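Notes from the 1:1 (GR / supervisor)

We went over the backlog. Supervisor wanted to see one worked example end to end before approving the batch request, so GR pasted a single chain during the call. The sequence is below; no edits were made to it. Supervisor asked that the structure be written out right there so they could see what the output format looks like.
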Amino acid sequence: MAKPKIVVKTKTASVKNEILSLLACHQPDLLEAGCDEAGRGCLAGPVFAAAVILPPSFTHPLLNDSKKLSEADRYRLRPEIEAQALAFAVASVSNTEIDEINILNASFLAMHRAISQLSIKPQYLIIDGNRFNAYPEIPHQCIVQGDGKYFSIAAASVLAKTYRDDYMQQLALQHPEYDWHSNKGYPTIKHRNMVLQHGFTPHHRRSFNVTNPQLSIF
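Structure output shown during the call:
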């Protein structure tokens, strides 16, 4: 009697399958830029966004949604993305602007600023998420979880995240008690406790309130 075939699912195989799920482009006919933001849920600091145009042949075994990558891998990928991109740009919207126009509109504005700074004008935009304010004269498509589906959006997510982290590391030198070198402005328990004890800094988003006793954020 023939022995049953044993199939072993390895970690390498699962990673390979995930890599193959990233696509080069959403449509093949127009020059396409992927866009994503970082820092939308933070209590402090700007929201950053990036726009990236990659060559059609671009591929990378590591590149994925920045949230799925380690910090070391994100910083390893950044110079490779910048070297191979046809064009890329990173832009931000400050905490005071966020308070004026709300975080959703600030995220769109940051992406618009990044797009406007591209050295090559794209003909089509693919946006991570389900909403976007149209950029003048360039059609777009919103893609939910697009940073895990398309290389250009994944690349934008890596650039936006690493440039924002660099910015927050600099702010952390001014206000070490808020632990920004570690939490990057996100609402960790320590960060929220420090806000309740010491109040807001000039870098905090005043429209993001911290309440007690549960330290919920509204």
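Supervisor's comment: The chain has one domain: 15-175.
Batch request approved.
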